[in-house]
Amino acid sequence: MTDEPGGGAFDKHRNLLFSVAYRVLGVAADAEDVVQDTWLKWSAADRSQVADPKSYLVRITTNLAMDRLRSAQTRRETYIGPWLPEPILTSTDAADDVATADTVSMGLLVVLETLTPLERAVFVLKEAFGFTYAEIAQAVERSEETVRQAAHRARGHVRARRPRFPTDRTRQRAVTERFLAAAAGGDINTLMQLLAPDVTLWTDGGGKVRQAIRPITGAQRVSTWFAAVAVQPYQGIEPVNMAIEVVELNGQVGLVFGDGGRIVATVTFDLNDDGVITGIHDVANPDKLRAVTARTVHHL
């Protein structure tokens, strides 16, 4: 892209464009497609008439992402089991800012699925990137009053479904490593201590691999499910061959399960302000593990 006229301006904002598209769509591959389509529109535009390349590019990306999300939401209605976002590896820099990291977390992306495309786009531009209402109105091609109303509705939905408990990276890692050690050792008692009584586990296999097709609730059931990893094959990998790596996923400390040759699942955690696990997202659909398998690290 960079060799063509206008490539410098586009590349300057490319990371922002992917970051916006991914938060709106929750799928890295779709976000990359949106960025590519944005480039095609940018390269065909009369850039001499573009006063603000950043605003112009964000407007194209946002509208393309909203259009794609409308189609995706229809397909997701027939998805087998819980639909979870596609996990991505993120940079440690993003995790230094807890608020920024939370805007790309699996837990929040799941909540954003309950919003309309417009509400989601407005929420992302306002909460994750700090755009003004006037700038957002230009980006989504709506009046400023419409944008303010959409932002109000979106914040209400998010607050109702996801109380915000900023968790520092040190605590995240400590809890994750304790959880990993307990699961690998089949230590149900320790797992129970780490889990909230009403913890929920969502597993996404997309009908392509064996996963629970309904959320699993309660500390006893969730701890038993993970303790089984120590004694039973998981996604075709025997316990003795299972390699579990602590990595940064979606701005948070998470786990990657594999056998050295392939990745079969990722796991991320929601923690409350006491560092207790309230939610777990387990993605094993092979189609959603491509970005992690490719080891592409995103700076969001």
From TrEMBL:
Segments forming domain RNA polymerase sigma factor 70 region 4 type: 108-157
CDD domains associated with the record: Sigma70_r4
Lineage: superkingdom: Bacteria
Gene3D superfamilies on file: 1.10.1740.10, 3.10.450.50, Winged helix-like DNA-binding domain superfamily/Winged helix DNA-binding domain
Chain segments annotated as transmembrane: none
Keywords (A to Z) from UniProt: Sigma factor, Transcription, Transcription regulation
Record-linked InterPro entries: ECF_Sigma-70_Domain, NTF2-like_dom_sf, RNA_pol_sigma-70_dom, RNA_pol_sigma-70_ECF, RNA_pol_sigma70_r2, RNA_pol_sigma70_r4_t2, RNA_pol_sigma_r2, RNA_pol_sigma_r3/r4-like
Listed GO biological process terms: DNA-templated transcription initiation
Statement: the UniProt record of this protein carries the keyword Zinc: no
Domain RNA polymerase sigma-70 region: start-end pairs: 10-73
GO terms assigned for molecular function: DNA binding; sigma factor activity
Coiled coil segments of this chain: none
Pfam families: Sigma70_r2 (PF04542), Sigma70_r4_2 (PF08281)
UniProt xrefs under PANTHER family: ECF RNA POLYMERASE SIGMA FACTOR SIGJ (PTHR30173:SF36), SIGMA 19 FACTOR (PTHR30173)
Assembly and binders: Interacts transiently with the RNA polymerase catalytic core formed by RpoA, RpoB, RpoC and RpoZ (2 alpha, 1 beta, 1 beta' and 1 omega subunit) to form the RNA polymerase holoenzyme that can initiate transcription.
Family (UniProt): Belongs to the sigma-70 factor family. ECF subfamily.
Full protein name: RNA polymerase sigma-70 factor
The species this protein was found in: Micromonospora musae
